[in-house]
């Protein structure tokens, strides 16, 4: 069950240098936009601007007497030695990637199950990323590995210089703990993927030069690379089209590592794919919805997951369902094999993920934003399911699962309870294995769930974490956050640093579950994309208004925060309703939505937002694009925009241009740019703590201090 889904790909959408500076199809060019030069991530002019802004922000925030305390409190949590070391289960042990004060770039290490079950785990270092970076003079960030089943000894290690999504890859032997001399090496930075066909063969999807990247700057070809040959000479086995978002070929494997088919896909939009299987010597298009994917093999059954209703063979499988076919029948007749329903959601339910052990499938679902895990087995020609015995009213998920056995671990968390790790070898119910320490005093806090009514009457749920018995006089400093895009849910999880640095100091924290996200299934997402994207922004504003109406806070004490798509969410909120907020943290955002498709790989998100080159669609986008909505004569809530120079996903240009325009209009604002880290925040703990402290000082000055930010 290793196939990457469209939702998983949301985590790797990337942006590089701008494709074009000229105006085209009504899209602003240099004559209309004086700050396009900030789209050059590392030009001398742009970096001089960044350094000036950073100096201004640091001089102000670090002078606040609370800054050092907040930074130290955050760093103590990030460097905590007693936090749970989450693992993956491999044949040669349990693997963990660990960062702390002594190892800021991190260690890839392993241990045995017996040792892991003890209070004093004996770790064996497999790869020291700090030592590697020092030896090679690079800012290496470990980006994971792809290993050859079933023993997973040989791996392709992905490394990013400075935290970019683009990586190099090198072959690594986990037994000798060394990179393989003369082994597979992909030494040019690129997006893409590799899969092992056998010990001497890789399937590689990557930037192979001219004519191999889509308009969105993703690979759309796959080559079969044999050991001892040049990658440039490797034969191409699959080619999508340049108009695709991304495309590539892969392998359909079972838990024993056996390859049952060669598959491929063309991502014709961010949310839609055409799927293929190599059958009778050619690529056969699979008769399945574009919003569906192959989800893996269990008990001799091939699983499909669909995000839309699927009518096939006289049956209709509902959106969000899991469907199966007999694997051997499918291999003989991929489009004719009989389909069987495995699971379908009840009202306000949605599946979140599918995992497998050697003998069972596990589906994580949300039931009214509460997590559950269901175990499925194919017995006597039918699917049998049982609910896994885990705590109620929590966010649950599969933390690790073994391909060789029935060993599986589950994580359980909520806002106020430290994360707990449960384990079973399949012979009984899961039992507590490890518990994270408490990082803040939750005794005086409580969680409530409420609903706000959006502009069109839809009920939008949200959680509020607040002091017990809080007086409803509107005086509480409140931080509202959310995401609302790409079918990604935002769920209750232990607040950690936010609990320590914000709630423990008297603030309230609110998590909103807007349309566009994945909290209630595919339709919750699909109802708020493209021409209906304004619904997401309306939902967020409705939650803010509800907080004020109930007396939890007032606009003078209400701040908002979000990153990436969440940064766009915050940008739309403070430009559409500047009267409703007094602080806005806009982190690693999308912001200029009339040029987003030109800023590197932004074109990959047209399926979510629309295409500003098309007049009808530009009208949707222009109605909310925050960069264009910053105008003279409006008092904005002094936003704090921050980004990363190494972010090749949403690119620092969005935040930079927003700050530059605010400055031009004489508006109060703050800007900070981390020079490393990338979109996913691959920085060391010291820098993470600094960023956290900067944001918390800003919020306290704006929402808690009488002088309203100084």
- Terminal CA distance reads 54 Å
Shape: globular
Radius of gyration: 25 Å
Quote the average pLDDT: 93
Strand order of the largest sheet: 32-33-35-34-36-37-38-39
Structural class: alpha+beta
According to DSSP, the number of beta strands is 39
Fraction of helical residues: 10-25%
Keywords:
single chain, alpha+beta, 15 helices, globular
Gist?
The chain is of the alpha+beta class. It is built from 15 helices and 39 strands. 20% of the residues lie in helices and 33% in strands.
Draw up the topology in text.
Layout: H1 6-9, H2 44-61, H3 67-78, E1 88-90, E2 93-98, E3 107-111, H4 113-116, E4 124-128, H5 129-136, E5 140-147, E6 154-161, E7 167-173, E8 178-179, E9 185-190, E10 193-198, E11 201-205, E12 221-226, E13 236-239, E14 246-253, E15 259-269, E16 272-279, E17 282-285, E18 292-298, E19 301-306, E20 310-312, E21 315-317, E22 322-326, H6 327-332, E23 340-343, E24 349-356, E25 361-367, E26 370-379, E27 382-387, E28 395-401, E29 408-413, E30 420-424, E31 431-435, E32 445-453, E33 459-467, E34 478-481, H7 497-503, E35 508-512, H8 522-526, H9 534-549, E36 558-563, H10 565-576, E37 583-587, H11 606-609, H12 615-622, H13 626-629, E38 640-644, H14 653-664, E39 670-674, H15 685-704
Parallel strand pairs: 34-35, 34-36, 36-37, 37-38, 38-39
Antiparallel strand pairs: 1-2, 2-3, 3-4, 5-6, 6-7, 7-8, 7-9, 10-11, 11-12, 12-13, 14-15, 15-16, 16-17, 18-19, 19-22, 20-21, 22-23, 24-25, 25-26, 26-27, 28-29, 29-30, 30-31, 32-33, 33-35
Helix pairs in contact: 3-15
């Amino acid at each position: 069950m290793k196939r990457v889904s469209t939702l998983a790909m949301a985590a790797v959408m990337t942006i590089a240098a701008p494709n074009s500076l000229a105006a085209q199809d009504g899209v602003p060019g240099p004559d209309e936009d004086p700050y396009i030069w900030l789209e050059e991530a590392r030009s001398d002019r742009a970096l001089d601007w960044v350094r000036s802004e950073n100096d201004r922000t640091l001089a102000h925030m670090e002078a606040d007497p609370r800054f050092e305390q907040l930074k130290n409190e955050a760093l103590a949590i990030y460097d905590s030695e007693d936090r749970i070391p989450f693992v993956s289960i491999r044949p040669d042990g349990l693997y963990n990637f660990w960062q702390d004060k002594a190892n800021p770039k991190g260690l890839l290490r392993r241990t045995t199950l017996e040792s892991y079950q003890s209070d004093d785990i004996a770790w064996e270092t497999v790869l020291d990323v700090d030592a590697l970076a020092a030896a090679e003079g690079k800012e290496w960030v470990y980006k994971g590995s792809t290993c050859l089943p079933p023993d997973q000894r040989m791996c392709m290690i992905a490394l990013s210089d400075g935290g970019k999504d683009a990586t190099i890859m090198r072959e690594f032997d986990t037994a000798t703990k060394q990179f393989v001399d003369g082994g597979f090496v992909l030494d040019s930075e690129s997006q893409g993927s590799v899969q092992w066909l056998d010990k001497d063969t890789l399937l590689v999807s990557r930037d192979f030069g001219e004519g191999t990247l889509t308009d969105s700057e993703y690979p759309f070809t796959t080559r079969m690379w044999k050991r001892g040959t040049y990658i440039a000479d490797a034969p191409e086995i699959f080619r999508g089209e340049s108009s695709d978002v991304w495309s590539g070929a892969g392998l359909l494997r079972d838990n024993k590592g056996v390859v049952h088919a060669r598959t491929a896909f063309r991502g014709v939009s961010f949310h839609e794919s055409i799927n293929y299987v190599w059958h009778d010597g050619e690529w056969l298009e699979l008769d399945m919805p574009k919003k569906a994917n192959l989800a893996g093999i269990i008990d001799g059954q091939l699983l499909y997951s669909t995000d839309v209703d699927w009518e096939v063979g006289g049956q209709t499988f509902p959106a969000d369902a899991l469907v199966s076919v007999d694997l051997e029948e499918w291999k003989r007749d991929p489009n004719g094999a009989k389909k069987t329903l495995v699971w379908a959601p009840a009202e306000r339910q949605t599946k979140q993920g599918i995992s497998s052990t050697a003998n069972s499938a596990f589906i994580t679902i949300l039931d009214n934003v509460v997590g559950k895990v269901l175990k499925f087995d194919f017995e006597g020609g039918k699917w049998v399911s049982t609910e896994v015995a885990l705590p109620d009213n929590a966010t649950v998920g599969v933390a690790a699962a073994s391909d060789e056995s029935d060993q599986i671990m589950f994580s359980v968390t909520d806002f106020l309870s430290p994360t707990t790790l449960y384990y079973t070898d399949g012979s009984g119910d899961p039992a507590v294995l490890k518990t994270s320490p408490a990082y803040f005093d939750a005794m005086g806090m409580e969680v409530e769930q409420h609903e706000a009514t959006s502009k069109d009457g839809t009920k939008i749920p949200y959680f509020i974490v607040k002091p017990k018995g809080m007086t409803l006089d509107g005086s509480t400093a409140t931080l509202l956050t959310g995401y609302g895009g790409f079918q990604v849910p935002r769920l209750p999880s232990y607040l950690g640093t936010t609990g320590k640095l914000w709630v423990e100091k008297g603030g309230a924290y609110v998590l909103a579950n807007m349309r566009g996200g994945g909290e209630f299934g595919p339709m919750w997402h699909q109802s708020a994309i493209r021409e209906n994207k304004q619904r997401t922004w309306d939902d967020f504003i409705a939650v803010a208004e509800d907080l004020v109406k109930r007396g939890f806070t007032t606009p003078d004490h209400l701040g908002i925060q979000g990153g990436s798509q969440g940064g766009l969410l915050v940008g739309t909120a403070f430009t559409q309703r500047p009267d409703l907020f007094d602080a806005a943290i806009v982190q690693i955002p999308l912001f200029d939505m009339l040029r987003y498709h030109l800023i590197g790989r932004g074109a990959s998100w047209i399926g979510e937002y629309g295409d500003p080159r098309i007049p009808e669609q530009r009208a949707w986008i222009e109605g909310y694009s925050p960069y264009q909505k910053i105008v003279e004569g409006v008092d904005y809530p002094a936003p704090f925009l921050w980004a990363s120079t190494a972010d090749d996903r949403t690119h620092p240009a969005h935040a930079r241009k927003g700050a530059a325009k605010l400055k031009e209009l004489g508006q109060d604002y703050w800007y900070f740019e981390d020079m490393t880290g990338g979109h996913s925040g691959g920085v060391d703990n010291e820098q993470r703590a600094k960023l956290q402290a900067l944001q918390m000082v800003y919020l306290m000055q704006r929402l808690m201090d009488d002088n309203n930010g100084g």
